[in-house]
Fold:
Amino acid sequence: MEKGMQEFNTHISSEHRLFDLHIRETFQYRDLIGLLVKKNFTAQYKQTILGPLWAIIRPLLTTVVFTIVFGNLAKLTTADVAGDYMIPAFLFYMSGNICWGYFTSTLQSTSNTFLANRATMGKVYYPRLVAPIATAFSGLISFGIQLALFLAFWACFLIRGGTSIQITPWLLMIPVLVLQMICLAVGLGIIISSITTKYRDLAMLVGFGLELWRYGCPIAYGLQLVPEKYMFLYMLNPVTPILTTFRYAVFGFGYFDGRYYALSWIISLCVFFIGLIMFSRIERTFMDTI
Amino acid sequence: MRHLMLKIENVSKQYRLGQIGGTTLREELQRRSARLRHREDPTRKIGAAVYEYGETFMALDGVSFEVEKGERVGIIGRNGAGKSTLLKLISRITAPTGGDIWLDGRVTSMLEVGTGFNGELTGRENIYMNGAILGMKKKEIDAKIEDIIDFSECRQFIDTPVKRYSSGMYVKLAFSVAANLDSEIMIMDEVLAVGDMAFQKKCLDKMNDVSRADGRTILYVSHNMNTIRQLCDRCIVLEKGKMIFDGDVETAISQYLGIRASTDNFIDLREMERTREFRQRPASMTELECLGVDTNVFPAGVKLDMRLGCTAEKLLENVQLRVIIKDLEGKAVTMQTSDRGVCLKPDEETDLFFTLDISRLAPGRYTMLPILYQVDAFGVDVRLDGINEVYCFEITQPGGFNHNMEWTHRRWGYYFNDPMELRMEKYAGHKEDDLR
Structure:
């Protein structure tokens, strides 16, 4: 029989093209993504008493501690720009904590993709990218709850008055910022997961590195604290513009520089595509080395 | 027109031997920079054999075949022949090093045991998960789920997390999912070994059924020749990563048995392959001969007179002989040891004569594993040389015995007994007093 006489729907080849990312195939598996999201979310709180309440308790307690330690004791500024603005410290810390919390939890769990799923991935085929995507979306449920809580507090402060918070169209930026966080976190996560199939060193680094990274972001302090001459260097951290823009969106004032924000997007997208390329290279044979 | 479901062209899979993945980034960088400067690898252990680092191993080497719609293909070969690797490549668990595979249709696979169930989820949730993994929609699974639960015989436990299932239940559910979900190609690896007899039969029937009725294609790997015979209409034999036979089932099975064990009555053991344990050995078996017979087929009740030639590199005292008899699936059936030890002198061939009692072996085919060993001061046996599956022989059933039903080891075991005498009254030789 001549080759090409018959159509086959799947071709498994030893050769791999660099941009063979299985995007379309992954999209066809959206039902599986949905099931995995549901599974991840319920499994997370299985055998706990408070259940999804934990999604609220964690950022709430962290925010209280931050307010006491950094706000009341250390008296760090919560202003991103100089001016006569009045920002409630509690809202300031909470906004930073929920964003950072979502970013780190997504990064940490996607960086563990291959190791955590090797039991299933060693038995059945599905586009491997389904796993990190599902992880990112299931984190989004917790983030949604936290954001709702934040907006509730935010509304309280708004109604009570006495702050400089304003409602602006910038609020519509929030979904864009979330998308950017997903790109960056998933991108970095799958880069790390691709490398950790062979070298476990990086897995050690992740938890520790994130701990340090937090201090390089304006979460515990306002951007005003950063000297102007180091601003460019500081803004190379792609998370910083996300955080400041988020605050700009919810408070209606603050720091926003289009150039730095664009740079942050460029870095996020680059990381995401490098991640995709590395991931699709490794996913073919990771079962042999893991 | 022929409709090909699977086309495999010159597929190979290479693995690196020795340490892979266990290295740290620093070691890998050291190794790469050393290679660039043409220096010796600094991370390699001094005196380590080459195969511990860098040597490669072809698990599959240039395998090509085609499978048509509705064919039931058995894949046989000894351990390490590449069967499981082949199935892994077809089910896309890992990618081939060379060659191409074309598939036309969805693949359900059962590799080893289970199909990638998630222990935290219930049986029902796992069914949906597996369906989604196959790319099925929720509605399509809804239509099948009752059949799946019925077939699995697990209805009572279907809403319990599968981590609490027994291994039998797990396999039943896994098989049921794989057999009932819509897929065009079904891959089964040695799964029927678990599960009770009745369920095994049910599985084979189901596979036959889906293949005949729905035209599904089945690839089946097993060491159990009986199930291969029952299920498959074509068989592929793999040996050391190469395909050595592709054709009808009976020829394939005899080919496969031919590779494993000689049926000659005189066997030269000098060049026969040993396991790693015996590559360096102080004593060697050189020849094995069955005396006074010119066949390897024996009626029940005979004993085998044998001669085993041995050499030693140094003087060895108190060397003992053990012969393990195995069935063709590699399961040990019985064993005989020598009654005393002998002395092997260096550079001198010693002949050991012994009589192997196979008179109580049930009808069937067996292989032999002779082992030379010594017992050390702690009472532990130190093995000197051993060769697996050196000689293959067959025990035939006496005519008329057991209504001429073919003896199967699964049903009746390995121990042969004469028919018992049936009487209508108590045996006169035993008085009640004698029995007390």
Observations:
- The longest helix of chain A spans residues 130-160.
